[in-house]
Amino acid sequence: MGTKLMCGEGGCGVCVVQTMLYETVMEKELNYAINSCLCPLLICDGWEITTVEGIGCQKTGLDQIQTSLAEYNGTQCGYCSPGQVMNMYSFLTNPSYPIKMTQQAVENAFDGIICRCTGYRSILDAMKVLVTSSSCSKSDIGDIEDLKGKLCKRTGKICTGQCSDSTSVRLVLRDAQWYKPTTEQELIDILKKCIDKKIRFIMGNTGTGVFKDLNPANYDVLIDMHGMKELYGVSFDPTSVFGSNLTLSVLIEIFERVSAASETSYMKELAIYLSRVANVPVRNAATWTGNIMLKHQFPDFPSDVFTMLVAMQSEIGIGFQGEEISVENFLSYDMTAKVITYFSHKILDPDEVIKLYKVMPRAQNAHAYVNAGFRMRLDSKNNFMVKDTPVIVYGGINKNFVRATKTERFLKGNQLGDPKVLKGALSVLQQEVVPDSNPVLASPSYRKQLTLILFYKFVLQVIGDKAGVRFQSATDCLSVSRPVSSGKQTYDTQKIEYPLTEPLQKLEANAQVTGEAVYIDDIPAYPNQLYAAFFVSTVGNAKIQGIDTSGAMEIPGVVRVVTHNDIPDGCANTFSIYSPIPEEVFCSGQVLYAGQAIGLVLAESQKIADSAAQAVKVTYTDVQTPLVDLDEAIQKQSFYPKLSDPKVAGDADAAIKDSPKTVTGSISMGGQYHMHMETQISICVPTEDGMDVHSSTQWIDGVQTAISQITGLQRNVINVEVKRLGGSYGGKITRNHWISAACGLAAFLTNRPVKLKMDFHTNMNMIGKRYPYRADYTVGFTDDGELNGLKIVVYADCGASVNDNAIPPLLSMIDNAYDCANWTITPIAVKTNKPASTTCRSPGSLPGIFIIETIMEHISKSLNKDPTDIRVKNLYQQGQINPLTKNIITYCNISQIVQNLRDSADVQTRLQKIQEFNQANRWKKKGLSIVPIKFGILWNGITYGINLCVYASDGTVAISHSGIEVGQGINTKVAQVCAYEFGIPISMIKVKSSNSFVGANSITTGGSITSESCCQGIVYCCQVILQRMAPVKAKIKDPTWLKIVHECVEEEVDLVARSWYAPVGKDHFQYYSYGATCAEVELDVLTGEHQISRVDIIYDCGESMNPAVDIGQVEGAFVMGIGYWMTEELKYDPQTGQLLTNSTWEYKPPLGKDIPVDFRVNLLKNAPNPLGVLRSKAVGEPPMCMSCSVLFAAKHAIESARQEIGQLDYFPLDGPATTEYIQKACLVDPSQFLIQ
């Protein structure tokens, strides 16, 4: 339990623990947060390691960090919570920070832990409250004068703070040798002895997170450098020298401290730049040496450290004999059996300037699109004349490019403040820089533009006030200057109903923050348990010719390989349970996409299984180029048979023809990976009469059925149990049927327990994602913008199967909040060679609402009117009939909500300020957008089983329901309702695991309806019990709960009740949820980087059963939507069909600094829902549909940028609107790069 594992790359942070290491520069032991997934066990020699279990537990008491995170509702699924806790624990207990422990410092420290659930606001608030702006921890790194001349009297080398007293280590392992030298001579002897071996030096081992070839298992000799204390030194007299064992975090601390001195003030620039490399846990372990060695071994690696060292004109020390080489020559230098010992750097003269830049896909923890360093000796009194040859270095261009030497020569002797020089330099640079092309990288054209842009930014920054005021905004980096974020939440409660409507902490919160919450991966291994791993196809459109398993079977510990041939006769090779269209568990011949499961390797450990899966060799025939692009598939008419008829209301053709105004356009949106921190997992255990199953599923009934049909076991002997999931978002509705079916088959065939936990990369490659869409539309409307008719063709990229069809909810929600009598919506299911698209949070509503909101934007642009005014003009009113569903629009308050939002968010004043800002700034622009929502909640076809029992001796209550706790707080709400109905403390109620006995024949958890449905089921159960109790209660004087329970038992009253909640739903929606969002975005026109300045949300949650939980759902859904619309891009290899963005290195969900700086969530007050459960409304999905307001706000900022060059025409902004796409939409051109 406790520490978790997900990505194995140091990119998600769920594995963070604390280490206490002796730091020689500061001469004391210090606490550091590190990624345990990257830390080899043998490297921990002499370390003190603390995990979340070591700082507090439920029985003995929680640490203040754990308490704060729980109280602030900073946990939902809870899978990341141990990592969040330990990251903060290391921060608070590390006395080395040369900065104040401010709220800003806290936010800076949380750049390495992904939370898909909460939206980060609650986590950051919980952590920031633990520090005050007045608290300060003084660093023990001395001033620069203390570090000058710090040489060891014994060795004459850089002083390390103390002489080495470590003990050297040598271990002879089965496949390698492990050394831990402590002296220079020991290391030299090892290198001489192992000259013909494959050697790897190890410090942080963080490079394996990006480059799997660096896995220590691939080397003959591993040398742990931690014992080499003489390589930790620092000196500043007269040249600055930094030992090779210094981590990036220590280097940042040194730069921060010494920048206080005037002669080294420029080192503040270095510290800020390095703080944008990777994330805190990685920087705590990674050394600068390891970073440039990655560049040496993998020249394509855009090393930020290498760029910095080249800009600094550093020298690198090799070995112990005084050999030095320049950083630029380092890449071609043979480092075989050689060790870096330091880098040196001559302190800059007063007339020298150094500036460093990095443009990346999101605000934190991302590799550079392009990084750059500029160092110049300037005569500021002579219009910033470049006195000698400058240094201009770029990373991210191609594997060979380092310096722009032609541009450097051009600038020598010229004045940076001269516009002609700027123009000439840009011209030379444009010819000199030739980025390479790679489908996973940003486009060559964008990267080339960035080289020009960053040089332009440097010039503006250097000349300062000499530049025109409107151009000076280019010098500010949004992610560096970002203010501390804040949040505000408002709601009302009904205290008379407590604990119902009470903003209670989640029941599981304490267990989650202490690491005591048990997830499937935490279950101890069963006796004789096997471990499974998929091997998958590497091409996207072919036939399997042969499968060679001999390499896998030769690996010790491998037990068996399972393929489609091993499925018992009469059983089905499919995990589809209700669809007549099969989806194969194991590919039987025709490969439909790259990443398709071909078989399963079973072994005695997970490591062996994973390695053996890689050893299986699959050959193919009839290999064809896969279709992975939606537009190309549409062009080739790669369509499935018609899934549904067009949705028709009125006569759209006639209405459009008769309209005075029309627009025609197209809009697209991509897929989205669910990014659940817990990957797909199942444990299947054969029993005396069947099988017990632990599965990370949202649909127990489906898992039971899938295992039954592939093994032949009857469903009544398959027992499925689910306690909680580490996130799901729809990804574990049908897709876990697949994993559990494969695992169940393996357990059935071997008669041994089998655990199948998918590694992160296989999970990304094999499992489908959110549906991508394209919509082509024609719209007719009045001169005032009132809708007359819409014709929309919606293309849905289904991938390899149409089984998880998301088109129906799209067709019924595409109108969003807007009334129009005439519609024709034609859905077309597109077939591509990608994993079958599947359900993802708000599966049809999210794209449908984006489509109609895009249309509203298009109409407003064509009429030159405020988009909000056009939206308001078309809003539904109370009592109107929805033409698409024939529902009456009931209890419709959308117009009032929008008006309330305009007032409370002070929209008119802010629009005026935005206009003034945009007029004053050429290279920074702001935009604001309001998006309303009408979200229909469907009850038709839902079925949930609930059991409740009251125990005789103490009156406590146990509940089991067929919903799944995925972080949405279903167990907490169920307990609140039960406590309310019975009038007992919530502490007397326990919600048990969900299982296939209680939940037999129940539907999936999803659609935002499960919590309220199970709560209604609990109401029924409680009413049954209370009815049985009533005659007994009437006989008791001064009845109490316990008295009533005891007397009921005496009279043999049944205190167990079951509910089967299957309401007779309407044909369409039971009720509507309403809301509106106002988003404000600021963007850097030059780079496309952007910042969400403020978001205001009003959401109609009815009478919330638990406002704290519901606000968490609003924030989490909205931020997941920010990722979808702004940062999360899926890219596929056009030749093989393989997913290229299948790692945390390339796939970028939001982090803490990607959320709104000012995040305000208001649950509509005094708005009980007469059509819902206990007057509440659903909340899990609707807020996500308003997140497109961020994209539209960015679009309005782009419009302002385009207006600068006279481009006033409408343009579409597809999702995701990444940094690159935003920059391209701004139509930036070097001819616009002016000084005055």
TrEMBL record:
Domain FAD-binding PCMH-type intervals: 171-350
Keywords, alphabetical: 2Fe-2S, FAD, Flavoprotein, Iron, Iron-sulfur, Metal-binding, Molybdenum, Oxidoreductase
InterPro entries the UniProt entry points to: 2Fe-2S-bd (IPR002888), 2Fe-2S-bd_dom_sf (IPR036884), 2Fe-2S_ferredoxin-like_sf (IPR036010), 2Fe2S_fd_BS (IPR006058), Ald_Oxase/Xan_DH_a/b (IPR000674), Ald_Oxase/Xan_DH_a/b_sf (IPR036856), Ald_Oxase/xanthine_DH-like (IPR016208), AldOxase/xan_DH_MoCoBD1 (IPR008274)
Molecular-function GO terms, alphabetical: 2 iron, 2 sulfur cluster binding; FAD binding; iron ion binding; oxidoreductase activity
Positions annotated to bind Mo-molybdopterin: Q698, R841, G1007
Catalytic site positions: E1181 (proton acceptor)
Sequence positions that bind FAD: D300, K358
Pfam families: Ald_Xan_dh_C, CO_deh_flav_C, FAD_binding_5, Fer2_2, MoCoBD_1, MoCoBD_2
Cofactor dependence: [2Fe-2S] cluster; Mo-molybdopterin; FAD
UniProt xrefs under SMART domains: Ald_Xan_dh_C, CO_deh_flav_C
Positions of [2Fe-2S] cluster 1 binding: C7, C12, C15, C37
Binding positions for [2Fe-2S] cluster 2 per the UniProt entry: C77, C80, C115, C117
Cofactor note: Binds 2 [2Fe-2S] clusters. Binds 1 Mo-molybdopterin (Mo-MPT) cofactor per subunit.
Protein family per UniProt: Belongs to the xanthine dehydrogenase family.
Protein name: FAD-binding PCMH-type domain-containing protein
Lineage: Eukaryota, Metazoa, Spiralia, Lophotrochozoa, Mollusca
